[in-house]
Write a structure and sequence with these properties.
The chain is of the alpha/beta class and about 675 residues long. Helix content is about 35%, strand content about 20%. Strand 11, helix 12 and strand 12 form a beta-alpha-beta unit.
Amino acid sequence: MKQYKYRRNSMELNDSIINIKGIGEKSEKLFNKLGISTVGELLCYYPREYEIFRQIEPISGVAEGRTVIVEGSIVSKPRASRHGNLKILECDIKDSTGLLRVVWFNMPFLMKTLHMGTKYILRGTAVNKNGILRLQQPKIISMKEYANSINKLFPIYSLTAGMTNNTILKAVKNCFDNTDFEKDILPAAIRKKYDLIMWKKAIQSIHFPKDKEECIKARKRLVFDEFFSFFTMMNRLKKERNKEKSVFEISDMCIIEEIKAVLSYTLTEGQDAAVSDIINDMESGYVMNRLIQGDVGSGKTIVAVIALALAVKNGYQGAIMVPTEVLAKQHYQSFCEVLGEFGIRIGMLIGSMTAAQKKKEYKKIEDGEIDIVVGTHALIQEKVSFKDLALVVTDEQHRFGVRQREALSSKGREPHMLVMSATPIPRTLAIILYGDLDVSVINVMPKGRLPIKNCVVGTNYRPQAYRFMEKEIAAGHQVYIICPMVEESENMEAENVTDYTNMLETTLAPSIRIKALHGKMKASLKNEIMEQFAAHEIDILVSTTVIEVGINVPNATVMMIENAERFGLAQLHQLRGRVGRGDSQSYCIFMAGNPSKETMKRLRVLEDSNDGFFVAKQDLKLRGPGDFFGIRQSGELDFALADIYQDADIMKMANEAAKECEISLKDCNYGKKIVI
């Protein structure tokens, strides 16, 4: 049995969470599932949003999607039932204005607590289930607690099954009360210049804010720290590179025009400009470090093909690293199709290959019998050795950190570096964020591509959406359906992949082939399902955002995103980029589970435009830099709080500050590890 040391009255940031009062072996495992194993990681596990504790409302005024406080008497005997693993408890409450159904999950002990005719104060979220408005998982509040909580901010955390919001709150409080905080690493001059509060105060206020103003100040400091840490590291990398001389002589450019001649299309102005930038970099005599930024479907891959062919035709090797095995296989096929007739030898290296297959490929790469290797993270394994690697390309850059790019680069003699990103970041922000890279932007879509048709609807549109999907499937096409959760949760009312898939199988025609896909699956199973979808062995793929990158299915023409309001606009734009890749007309349906006026206004930005850069710009306008009581918009890098769109001003400050002072990166991170 695991042995734990005695808890200390005073803890340090690197101590295990088992030292925190109230955390035992069982709860430790739950915290571990959330990525929390140390005191510092707990303190830096920030609320995902806040709710304001408002006054009691009449039941007649309760509206779907709102978190409310009501007071009423129980007028029906509490009823217990079971749905799968969920134990459900229901009853009805009434005040002078109306009647409301109340539902609790996995709280059977309340059966002994709730009494007919007794008046209770309840706080919960109103949801519409099968046409019935009900109060979901409300908290029973005493009159004293209610009086002390009016108009205060209530932190809401991301949870895992078996974990409650209150468990995290208690742990953070016990942690905060008994932790030795290190001296603030930011110099007083920096804090004063940028109007930043102390780190200890920021941590306290992000978890237990007195009001919105205090919370905004706390968040500003913590976001600043994340960006500051990132830019400190980036600046060091930039200094290390600092226009290093290249050992690779690139002079023969004939292959470029030869490739253009065999293509069935003409490169866009943006693609031609990116190719020109690459040529200038590679023949300059210095090591290239360039970012090719282009919206989803702008044609970045062919630019990479040309760059890699250029390296090969000048006597060297090239490698391209992609985030998934399915995408690696698809790239391998397309590279073979384009470059096969030029005598360029293409290899592939992915994790699912057998040891014997890998060994054979390792030898070919080392002996120079393979010119271009397409692969996943398998490319950066220690056993991989190149004969003469001159160009490294990473596709879907936001899924790879700087360290992973560096690991691949270390396989050669300071090879040229080309990274590609489909994240629609305004150029000014991209230059700051990728400070170690020169930036090329492809801002024109290929000719002939039909723009995606978009619509923003409420859940009452579902029957029509299903009929439309059946029509598209009958025409030989495929469908994506995105849900925000893997399985049902008592903590969040939103569609989940597991139940949604089961529901579709009973709702749609039996001939329609439906499969589920989510991040909790084993990598081998995920790859298998994505390959089945790519091979048209599946008609509808019900998935979480795991398909945001890593799969290219031109035959998929419909994307429907459930609970679209729970995603940021940038992520929604990335998701819809999974369709519209073929010759047929494609469609994206954004279904709002909470169709409030603000929600619909935000989502209609996507209805009005397929331009990712426009979407990012409008989103920033709509939300405003100080509006953070909602959804994080960007998944760029591994920031806990920082958002490159809404926090653009803070990002600029942190970049400026990082240039002003040199601080140990270890000291910048506090309890949160920032992966770059």
